[in-house]
Amino acid sequence: MHVPPIPHLTTADPELAALVESEAQRQHDVLRMIASENYVSPAVLEATGSVLTNKYSEGYPGRRYYEGQQFIDQIEQLAIDRAKALFGVDHANVQPYSGSPANLAVYLAFAQPGDPVMGMALPMGGHLTHGWSVSATGTWFRPVRYEVRRSDGRVDLDQVRDLARRERPKIIFAGGTAIPRTIDFPAFAEIAREIGAVLVADIAHIAGLIAGGAHPSPVGYADVITTTTHKTLRGPRGAMIMTTAEYAKAIDKAVFPGLQGGPHNHTTAGIAVALREASQDSFRRYAHQIVANAKALAAALTEQGFDLVTGGTDNHLILVDLTSKGIGGKPVAKALDRAGIETNYNTVPYDTRKPFDPSGLRLGTPALTTRGLTEEQMPQIAAWISAAVDAAAKADESTLDTIAAQVRELLAGYPMPGWEPTPR
């Protein structure tokens, strides 16, 4: 049953309530290893499901276009103040609806259509909104894409510097969606300063690790920091943009009125709760445990004969290259899903397969760490993954079902925030 309960939804729309309950049961019963997913606390669930969703609030605290903002202003300011304190920044905007609009606001603030902008190429581990061709950012601006080295899968900062000097991008993005190693923010900052570019650190994946001291911070190096508020930060699905004082006005104007109308006040409240949680010592321990689990899992996967991009991980994320296994990432991800291990197929650097059927598998440890799993369980998880890969190659569905039952048995001993099995 849900914590908090959902009796009114159950009465008003039993069909939908049953689907919500089924999804909660699914989240309870599987190892959720998609690197961008997590579990939020019951407090975050309560905030995002509150009456704050009723209120429209165009503008910023103290400067609204609608009346009745006496408490909304305080809630948003609370989220702003907590973000500034937690990350040590001059300014925070907590209104972006998600990570992509947050990044789009950066373009609106600092570039004109057709300007050169630099980001990591999507197949190398970058993000769509860092100038990839199918994104508006790659259509409206002239993308300059840096890559990783073939030899070790790490960012080639010499290439970044050479490209920046030649193309003179207005914006440089550091960060991405499949980067298993520490991002060298000081090196990116040096390159950006040399050519007069705005350096944007997209920390969507690692924000919780930074907040918990498990990854170096871009503060003091990046002019602008964008992030989602879920993933490792363990908040609701929203976003923030943090800046130096110099860039605060441009970013605020880009978010509203540039791209958005009224903020989602219930999400803002959920962000405020998550930021308070992230300031606790327990969250710091959690962030470090995420990394410890990822390192232990990477080592165990290597022992099982898997090839890992960059040879391992420094953070929450592992990128597996399945080429040597003779099977693609898509059939493996589907087999693992049946086996109770939720992942996503993913391209690997210099992939020879198509993006919808790539060679890679992306794994993450944030959600399983929230459930309370530690390094002790990582070898078993690696063994399950290995067995599932072998089963996928043989179309052995019975083995996948056996693994799923073993996963459920393991997870029965690790509570899920926000839901618990109905007592029998």
From TrEMBL:
How far does the signal peptide extend, from start to end residue? none
Amino-acid biosynthesis recorded as keyword = yes
Q: Which cofactor does it need?
A: pyridoxal 5'-phosphate
Can you state which reaction this protein catalyses?
Answer: (6R)-5,10-methylene-5,6,7,8-tetrahydrofolate + glycine + H2O = (6S)-5,6,7,8-tetrahydrofolate + L-serine
PROSITE patterns, per database record? SHMT
- Can you state the subunit structure given in the record? Homodimer.
Pfam families (UniProt xref): SHMT
Question: What domain of life does the UniProt record list for this protein's source?
Answer: Bacteria
Compartments in which it is found: Cytoplasm
Q: Which PANTHER family does this UniProt record tie to the protein?
A: SERINE HYDROXYMETHYLTRANSFERASE
Which annotated residues bind (6S)-5,6,7,8-tetrahydrofolate? L122, G126, H127, L128, E246
What keyword terms does UniProt attach to this protein?
A: Amino-acid biosynthesis, Cytoplasm, One-carbon metabolism, Pyridoxal phosphate, Transferase
In the record, the note on similarity to other proteins reads:
Belongs to the SHMT family.
> One biological process GO term for this chain?
glycine biosynthetic process from serine
HAMAP family of this UniProt entry? SHMT (MF_00051)
A Gene Ontology molecular function term for this protein is:
protein homodimerization activity
Q: What is its EC number?
A: 2.1.2.1
What this protein is called in its record is: Serine hydroxymethyltransferase
Q: Which organism is it from?
A: Planosporangium mesophilum
Sites marked Plays an important role in substrate specificity: H230
Q: What is its main location?
A: cytoplasm
Q: What does UniProt give as GO cellular component?
A: cytosol
Residues covered by the Serine hydroxymethyltransferase-like domain = 10-385
